[in-house]
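BACKBONE STRUCTURE TOKENS:
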Amino acid sequence: MMTKEMETILDSTNDGMMIIDKGGVVTLFNHAAEIMTGLSKEKVVGKYISENFPETQLVDVMVLEEITADNFLKIGNKEITIRRMPMHNDLGQVVGAVAIFRDISDLTSLNDQIDRLKEMQSLLEGILHSTQDAISVCDEKGIHVLINPAYTKLTGLSEKDIIGKPVTVDISEGQSVHLQALKKQKPVSNTKLKVGKHHKEIIASASPIIVDGELRGSVGILQDLTEMKKLNRELMLARQIIRKLEAKYTFDDIIASDQQMTDCIEKSRQAAKTPANILLRGESGTGKELFAHAIHNLSDRRYKQFVRVNCAAINESLLESELFGYEEGAFTGARKGGKIGLFQEAHNGTIFLDEIAEIPTSTQVKLLRVLQEGEVMSVGSTRSINVDVRVIAATNVHLEKAVEEGRFREDLYYRLNVIPIRIPPLRNRMNDIYPLILSFLNKYNQEYGRNAKDLSPEALRHLKQYHWPGNVRELQNYIGRAMVNMKLQDTLLEAKHLPKFFDSETDFSNNYAASLSDKKMKVASLDQALKEAEKKIIEDTLERHGNNRTKTAETLNISIRSLYYKIKKLGID
């Protein structure tokens, strides 16, 4: 018989207890057992155990007279272990059995947390060991507790040198970012230090570790400043190479002292900083392409593609497929697999459409769609492709007149003419002739092996008296020919070195006839003779007009597109 004092003692334990007599009637059910099972003492005590615990094995314990190992039982959200054992009297006879319950929910949760912490620790160690950044961790007292292999590689200091030692032990010059982060309890970044055996120059950052509002330590990241400088130099070099390959010139390459030209450059600089389309106007040879390169190189797209398209040099039937691309089988002779267009090549960059007035009206419609919708559709395709391209167009044609005559779409004109920039002809900025000539002397000194330093006042006076219909391009070509007439030891370009200009159409014809006679051309057939004659006429006309192809075409009474075709066919440089 269980005394009242004994029941009170058993009720105070954390383990649940249930005792049955030899007949299987419950004689004790303590307070902890009530909590674990959710059953009251009144409902259980004095009842057969099978009434409340139908699957109990406690009766079997009396029969087998053996203690059972711990069994796990889930009751609600609780994890319970049960141990069962028989009870004997002084004579060794079985008089009942006892079951002891133990709530191990907290232990299970703790084990789960420990497992998760171990997983997180393994994950953290994996990250620390695989990252290229040098990492060190200290506790709240400023003592190193962890470093990774990248740290050892950067500083030359091992765990033995660092762990358990103050955070200042690795610093040869500068203040510890760990101590600053611990003191301020705020991140510290981009601090220059020298660390390790070889006084490696680094950039260090650190952040405090705060858990539940308490400062627990600091984590620091070290980056090799020497390597960063090297990578930055390589990046700048790569960018310079890209710029040389794609857009060759900057505004520094444009020589100008005349007010008209400097105003034009300033307007172009301002335009470069906007995403707006630009229309460059000016006579042939004024430097429209030079401006296009410079604008691209000053824009936000400077490190992206710069694609130049001479709209007059591409056959009308091929221009659309070149600009917008084509699908496989789109037309006879189409490349297998198709081809992306120049607009797609220029995606995120700039496309320079030179001789824009020469685009046929059928292609103008598709170009307008690109400018309005920002999408292209390749020839033979039904699918549109989005493109982000800045358009710089150029022309030496009176576009407004072309619009009036119906040769150029008015809506396309307004889309292109967002920022018009007119480049003045050389005859209107004669003050620029002298600095331009000096730059050409330097250029051809290197190419021709000459040593020209300057030109005589007489030579400069002659050059300023000419009207330069071919503008800067004609001047450059002319100075190149003049330097051929100089001797290697000459340092001054004089009037005697200057080639004669063509004075009239008659003189040109006579010069041409004489040149044919002087060369004593040997030809195999009439066809070859005609080709040689045609080539000579075009070359001399181009030279006469300072390589101005529009004026050359007008003089020869042929279209600009025919001129480009003949130049390519006859192999004229």
Notes: The chain has a mean pLDDT of 83.
